[in-house]
Amino acid sequence: MADKGLKELYIDELKDLYSAENQLVKALPKMAKAATSPDLRAGFEEHLEQTKVHVQRLETIFEQFGESPKGKKCKGMEGLIEEGSEAIEEYEGELLDAALIGAAQRVEHYEMAGYGTVSAFAEELGESEHVTLLKETLEEEKETDEKLSGLAGDINAKANRGEEAADDNETITPKKKSRNAA
User: Fold this and answer.
1) Neighbours of 21 (CB within 10 A)
2) Measured between alpha carbons, how far is 152 from 128 in angstroms, rounded to an integer?
3) Cα 96 to Cα 91: distance, rounded to the nearest angstrom
4) pLDDT in tens, 103-139
5) pTM of the entire structure?
6) Which three-class secondary structure state does DSSP give residue 73?
7) Contact partners, residue 182, CB within 8 Å, separation at least 6
8) Bridge partners of 176?
């Protein structure tokens, strides 16, 4: 890729984001189903619909270039989603919700970095319509991150109180499932 220019890098990064967003479209329903907090579940469902719009925006950019958005797998998002899946297997109740929020925020920060990068590339390339679409998505990713932070305060406190109650009762509450449990 050494002989290619910024436009090719831009398209390559857009393909990576397209893959990431499509992986997220598949993962968000699983996260929503696993969430025990109704507010967190609703947040994941809302972000799923938003993510579908993000995919459409990327498809619009690819159509304008006459390029296919396919052909690249975002390994970074694959890893982040895998970590979220592990949390679903390992935790229950408020601890699960706290773990899901952590996983979702890592995803949001990853996406914010990607959209910030491609927005800068689009600006440099003079693609003003793309800049508008990409920055709109970037702002939505930031808003989602802020909503997750808001939910985390209450959910983390409940998770902590649950642990304290278990310690006070000197009983073992299933805070963490064994990986080997059926």
Assistant:
1) 24
2) 36
3) 5
4) 999 999 999 999 999 999 999 999 999 999 999 999 9
5) 0.86
6) coil
7) none
8) 91
